[in-house]
Design goal:
This is Alpha/beta hydrolase. By secondary structure, the protein is α/β, with parallel strands linked by helices. It is about 50% helix and about 15% strand. It contains 13 helices and 8 strands. Strand 1 (about 120-130) and strand 2 (about 130-140) form a beta hairpin. Helix 1 (about 5-30) runs parallel beside helix 3 and helix 2 (about 35-65) packs across helix 3. The radius of gyration is 23 Å and the shape is globular.
């Protein structure tokens, strides 16, 4: 091989192999925390693209190795081969999970990206509290002739940030005939602890939809609560609270209990989050202090109410929890603990864990991880007769 081609090849390949090696080390070792977190996020969003890129580098390394059998070309070829096998293992693990739960995946779809687009919508005020108006956006179904099932969507943001425009995947619902109500709610600050207020606001949104059911042409007897991260925690808190009677809407209109709840990587055990802060996961205690008002020692009764594991009993709405196995924001131990107790009490909680999944693993809906989420939701909704089977 001519020297003037060999040098650029080495300059290209050596850093690329090192970068991919570092990424895959983080993927499998999940250490240190930030490397594990960022590589988990990359794998969650782009695992298929990563495989293709490594395959291209492997092909290039093979061609150069055939032309010039030197130590460097040999090491680069074998090293890239190891990286390719490791990435195949990541993909195979995702497919094995999907196959186990009968969730169809498309590799070609995973080669594209879909981070959502905000479609046509209408905005309404559903609550005025302490002089501030709280809004919701309404996304109507593509075919709006018949009554649709309402989905109240609640955003994340650690209870202290975020807005109703954050998650723009409404089209998944509207294409399937649902009407989405994407809501804002009171956010916690140093001076305002919204551990009750936020869930009460979600219940008020339910009351608003009930009051305006005819206007929006929705069937509130089949209402669904859906949220991610803090929003996932709030939809469970509000949904179970409406059944248990410990949620009070800021409205005279009686809300309905949800037919189903879908929570994506929700915080369901604040006590576990507090104890695990900084131990392989992000320290979210400042968020907890703003939201709850202090530590579990200072406010044991508040934490007891917020820990969903203490609210479980028969008769609760059908619930689906989807979370990533590598979540560095909301410890997965809380969800697993909840699931174990739910199984003992025979509470209807369906659970889907996504391998290598980081917090916000599903932001790219077309990724393999994203497809697992949406397919699990479709299976859950179909099973509970909230969506037609295809």
């Amino acid at each position: 091989m001519k020297k003037f081609l060999y040098i650029p090849y080495a300059i290209l390949m050596v850093p690329a192999v090192l970068v991919f090696a570092l990424m895959l080390f983080g993927t499998f070792a999940n250490w240190p925390m930030y490397l594990g977190g960022y590589t988990g996020l990359l794998q969650s969003h782009y695992s298929a693209q990563i495989l293709v890129v490594i395959f291209v580098f492997l092909g290039l390394a093979f061609l150069v190795f055939r032309k010039k059998s030197a130590k460097l070309t040999k090491y680069l070829f074998y090293g890239t081969g190891v990286l390719f096998v490791a990435q195949v293992f990541v993909i195979a693990t995702l497919y094995r999970t999907a196959f186990k739960h009968q969730l169809p995946l498309s590799f070609t779809q995973a080669l594209s990206t879909n981070f959502g687009v905000q479609g046509p919508h209408e905005t309404f005020s559903y609550l005025e509290l302490d002089g501030k108006k709280y809004l919701l956006d309404v996304y109507r179904p593509f075919e709006g002739a018949k009554r649709s099932i309402p989905v109240i969507q609640v955003h994340g943001g650690g209870y202290v940030a975020g807005s109703r425009t954050d998650d723009r995947h409404h089209e998944w619902f509207t294409k399937k005939g649902f009407t989405v109500f994407d809501v804002d709610y009171p956010l916690a600050t140093d001076d305002m602890h919204t551990w009750e207020t936020a869930a009460n606001a979600i219940a008020t949104a339910v009351s608003y939809v009930v009051e305006n059911a005819q206007k929006f042409n929705v069937d509130t007897s089949k209402l669904i609560l859906y949220g991610g991260s803090a929003g996932g925690g709030l939809v469970i808190q509000a949904g179970y609270g409406l059944v248990n009677g410990n949620i009070t809407p800021y409205s005279q209109i009686e809300p309905v209990s949800p037919k189903a709840i879908i929570a994506i990587f929700p915080p369901v055990d604040f006590t576990v989050m507090w104890k695990m802060a900084g131990q392989g996961v992000l320290d979210m205690r400042s968020n907890a202090i703003q939201f709850v008002g202090g530590s579990p020692d200072e406010f044991p009764e508040r934490y007891k109410r917020l820990d969903i594991v203490n609210s479980l009993h028969k008769g609760l709405p059908e619930t689906l929890i989807i979370t990533g196995s590598r979540d560095h924001v909301v410890p997965i131990e809380g969800a697993r603990k909840l699931l174990r107790k739910a199984e003992r009490l025979q509470v209807p909680i369906s659970y889907q864990e996504v391998p290598f999944g980081e917090h916000s693993f599903e932001a790219n809906a077309n990724s393999l991880s994203g497809q697992i989420k949406w397919q699990a939701m479709e299976k859950f909704l179909t099973k509970n007769k909230l969506m037609d089977s295809h």
